[in-house]
Amino acid sequence: MAEKNTLPIQPSVSDIETSHHRIQAWFSRTAPLIQWAATDSPLGTIYVARNAAGVCSLDFGVSEDDFVLHLDALARTEYKPVALDAAIAQLAEYFAGRRQRFDVPVDLSGMTPFQQNVLHAAASIPAGKVWTYGQMAQTIGKPRASRAVGQALGSNPVPIIVPCHRVVGSDGSMTGYSGGGGVASKKWLLHLEGAL
Question: So which residues are the catalytic ones?
Answer without folding.
Answer: 164
